[in-house]
Amino acid sequence: MTPQILNESLKRQQRMELIEKLKLEIIEVLNLEDIKPEDIDADAPLFGEGLGLDSIDALELIVLLEKNYGIKIEDPKEGRKIFASVRTMADYILEHQKK
Amino acid sequence: MAGRVFVTGIGIICAIGKNTGETLASLKACRHGIGKITVLDTVHRDELPAGEIKLTNTELAALAGVTDIDMNPRTALLGMIAAAEALQNAGIDPKDNRFRTGVISASTVGGMDKTEINYRHYEKGKPYNNFVLTHDCSYSTEQIAARLGFRDMVSTVSTACSSSANSIMFGARLIHHGLLDRVLAGGSDSLSKFTLNGFNALMILDKHHCRPFDKSRTGLNLGEGAAFLVLESEEALGSRTPLCELTGYANANDAYHQTASSPDGYGPFLSMSDALQTASKNIPGFNLRDISYINAHGTGTDNNDLTEGIAIGRIFGDAIPPVSSTKPFTGHTLGAAAAVEAVISILSIRHNTIFPNLNFNEKIEELKFEPVREMITGVTLKHVLSNSFGFGGNDSTLIFSAC
Question: What is the ipTM of this complex?
Answer without folding.
Answer: 0.70
